[in-house]
Amino acid sequence: MAKAFAFFCLLIQLFSIFHIGNGELELNYYKTSCPNAEEIIRKQVETLYYKHGNTAVSWLRNLFHDCVVKSCDASLLLETARGVESEQKSTRSFGMRNFKYVKIIKDALEKECPSTVSCADIVALSARDGIVMLKGPKIDDIKTGRKDSRGSYLGDVETLIPNHNDSLSSVLTTFDSIGIDVEATVALLGAHSVGRVHCVNLVHRLYPTIDPTLDPNYALYLKKRCPSPNPDPNAVLYSRNDRETPMLVDNMYYKNIMAHKGLLVIDDELATDPRTAPFVAKMAGDNGYFHEQFSRGVRLLSETNPLTGDQGEVRKDCRYVN
Fold it and tell me: According to the annotation, is 35 in a ligand binding site?
């Protein structure tokens, strides 16, 4: 009996060692090591929003671009240095900005708890708090405990991040590959309700002829926003995804695409494809339902293949590996 009990205790010890080395995400991971971590991030996101409103949109886009490429591991934030080629160099990262403000959040955390809070968790939690600033749902159950990658995946970005011209089937396949179902995918695409699209990614629907799936009056508006078939990618030539509530995470996006007023090809396909159209119609009619599914989608996205335990590191500066 004593031997059996001793063996059982040994198993518990071995399990604990294994768990520490290869942990899982959990709610309030920093409750002991940095109790104020989530509040510090929230306050920094709020302060940055009131100084630079579009940062909230950037935090949301960062989550998608980081998590879809291999893992939610802050590889997106790495700059080209020390043998690392930044994912930000990819054409798929066109128009992304505000990376410099991540350092403000990280510096505040380092001051409170040095080398404790990962950049990957900053990506996840800043997205959560940015959504609130955009009047989207308050998502309380975002887990933490991610570790940061020790490298980037520039060579995989073009394959894994959907192109602005990709088909709905391609996008659904991408999300399905990381465990996100069709309903949650439709909700996540509702992030198109905020932000904007550069004319570089629009003109193929306007020139030489107007895409017949576009509402004619809306197409004329877009041609005013994008008067040339060859826009300068460095010029300020954009159209808002949502003209009515451009800085709100709400269901106006779905109302727009049902009226053929979506900017991208996938927007139109989303509203007409039988796999997604019922969800679009339901979200267009019920903002609460959209927020519920959007919250679920963000949670799923934020938990994509995270590095935990000793699988990664906690960077001191999100721009560089330690």
Answer: no
Please state, in angstroms and as integers, the Cα–Cα distance from residue 67 to each residue in 188, 189, 202, 284, 290, following that order: 13, 15, 25, 27, 21
| Calpha distance 293→296 (Å, rounded) | 5
Q: Is 69 annotated as a binding residue?
A: yes
For 315, list phi and psi in degrees, rounded to 5: -70, 145
pLDDT at 14: 40
Mean pLDDT of the chain: 92
Determine whether the annotation assigns residue 66 to a binding site: yes
Residue whose C-alpha is closest to residue 260's, from 215, 222, 303: 215
Arithmetic mean of pLDDT, 11-26 = 51
| pLDDT 10s digits, 182-209 | 999 999 999 999 978 999 999 999 999 9
Centre a 10 Å sphere on the Cβ of residue 52 and count the other Cβ atoms it contains. 13
Residues with a catalytic annotation lie at 65
Spatial contact of 254 and 283, defined as CB atoms under 8 Å apart: yes
Cβ atoms 306, 75 nearer than 8 A: no
What is the structure's pLDDT at 7? 44
Q: State the Cα–Cα distance between residues 139 and 154, nearest whole angstrom.
A: 30
